[in-house]
Amino acid sequence: MDNISIRQIYQTCLIIRLFEERVVALYPEQKMRTPVHLCLGQEAIAAGVCFHLKLKDYLFTTHRCHGHCIAKGVSLRAMMAEFYGKQTGLCSGKGGSMHLVDPERGIVATSAIVGGGIPLAVGAALSVKLKKEKRVVVVFFGDGAVDEGVFYESLNFAALKKLPILFVCENNFYATNSTQESRQPLDNIFERARIFGIPGFRCDGNDALKVTNLAGRLVAKVRQQKGPMLLECRTYRWKGHVGPDCDSEKGYRPKDEIDAWIRKCPLKKLEKYCLKKRILTIEGIEEIRLKLSKEIDEAVEWAQEGPLPLKADVTQNVTYGD
Ligand SMILES: Cc1ncc(C[n+]2csc(CCOP(=O)(O)OP(=O)(O)O)c2C)c(N)n1
Ligand SMILES: [Mg+2]
To answer: How many angstroms is it from 249 CA to the middle of ligand 2?
Structure first.
């Protein structure tokens, strides 16, 4: 990978980190009108996978979607305004953080139903294939989604029809408060693709360069119409399942486990590599940090100043049964 690409991946990891840290800082003001499922600690996966996506490629994601959306190029101000429930938000303030949609950037759906995005993504991949379009589909989901029957049905159908889709499992070892080992007899998510003939791979999700390299190979294969692929990235969420606090007080995961994963920070790992290889300097990093922080300042200001949706518009852009 060339230095420009590595710098770009670093910037993507950093902007996700800074954006979410700002959400953590502002959330207690209780002005954001949405629950937030933060991906702090998991940034490298979004950055590494989305690095290979074009604007027209489709992306489907979950309740823990901020990083994916930022890495696919969603406007920070529109996202922030959505969190504040503003008319100027990405979904006019009607979606909140779990339902971000941006058709211009290929973000078709963000599903808060665990596993719910997977069949939608497979449907989109079928449409791409039938229309002979030149795009790929990527769907992100958690280890919890692998507990759902729809995961297996979707893989089966995608394999049968040789659809252009990359399944990306962000295995952070927890679904809400349940450990993976309390729900799954084997720690083998990547191997489960293979029973359908789908090549399945696993990598360290906290190593941005490893994710980028492997995802690059898999996206290229999907683009060459070699059929679906699956990538399991192993990582950890630093914050609680939902909200800005760390939930060590809940007692479902030990503090030393959280601390050990914080020591495996994906951003620090990449920063160390960039400094060692002289891809970035300390001053350069400071400059990038300052520039990105200013972008976030501007997004927050814009979001806070925007108008709330009007009562009269409550059904606008909302479809409901007849
Ligand atoms: C079908 C369904 N069951 C339960 C829930 C409640 N729920 C929301 S998120 C979540 C955990 C999801 O865990 P995982 O898929 O590993 O994603 P993570 O939160 O770890 O990113 C659960 C059980 C839901 N939204 N949908
Ligand atoms: Mg999980």
So the answer is: 19
User: Residue 142: which of 112, 163, 120 has the closest Cα?
Assistant: 112
**322 pLDDT band (50/70/90 cuts)?**
low
What pLDDT was estimated at residue 246? 86
Q: Whose C-alpha lies nearest to ligand 1, atom 12?
A: 175
Whether 176 lines ligand 1, by a CB cut-off of 6 Å, is yes
> Residue 60 is inside which H or E element, if any?
strand 58-61
State in Å: Cα 237 to ligand 2 middle.
8
CA distance 245 to 240: 6
Classified by CATH at the fold level, domain 3-301 comes out as: Rossmann fold (3.40.50)
Which among 120, 176, 121, 124 is positioned nearest to 147, based on CA atoms?
176
Q: What tokens does 192 get? A: 């489960």
- Contact (Cβ atoms closer than 8 angstroms) between residue 267 and residue 14: yes
**pTM for this entry:** 0.97
